[in-house]
From TrEMBL:
Record organism: Macrostomum lignano
GO BP field: L-serine biosynthetic process
Listed name of the protein: Phosphoserine phosphatase
Enzyme class per UniProt: hydrolase
Domain of life, per lineage: Eukaryota
Annotated GO CC locations: cytoplasm
Functional pathway: Amino-acid biosynthesis; L-serine biosynthesis; L-serine from 3-phospho-D-glycerate: step 3/3
CDD domains tied to this protein: HAD_PSP_eu (cd04309)
EC nos: 3.1.3.3
Amino acid sequence: MSQPSPSVLQAWLGADCVCFDVDSTVCVDEGLDNLAEFCGVADKVKALTNKAMNGDMTFEESFEARLSMMGLTRQKLDQFVSQHPPKLTPNVVNLVQLLEQRNKRVYLITGGVSDLVKPVLTALTLPDNRLISNRLLFDENTGEFLGHDRSCFTCRSGGKATAVKHLRVDLGYRSVAMIGDGVTDMEARSECDLFVGFGGNVERAQVVAGADWFVRDFRELAKPLLERDANCNMP
């Protein structure tokens, strides 16, 4: 377990907005990889996911290639979602509750798709407006897959940084922390006060090296919050 510097700890405790990546961070697995397995193209899609997360391929190249392989329909996607509830990373629910109780607003920022991530919001008891994700487009009559909404922040490389900038400039948050496992999460560092690398599910060398603070268990992030409460309550 790495110990945060005093300045990093101050940034963590001072954040009024905390953003989480979803795949391999809030959840133990990758939603698009699971959907690909359901669609029978798991190996090909997983290889592209890893290329994007390791920085070997741009996110938009990986995202569009993965979607094109799956043969999606509205009906197939709905069937997958109904049969595959989210698998949350241990201790993440407690951390989100601690943050929300302290008026630190929690957002999920993901390159995944809204249909797969909305059940995660529900599991974390967060409202729908705390999700920034991608949106898939389907024909309303036939359910045929038409592509994805290219106006979404996270459909392109650097999109998470753009999403964080939106939170600061348009929604007025003063101090933002980002937590994630991948290089695409670390890209948001330019707009954040703090980037926390998370390695509880997947550990990536670039993220270990580039994070302001690297943790493998969400209890490491909960501990300073609880310790500050204890200090404040001392006579």
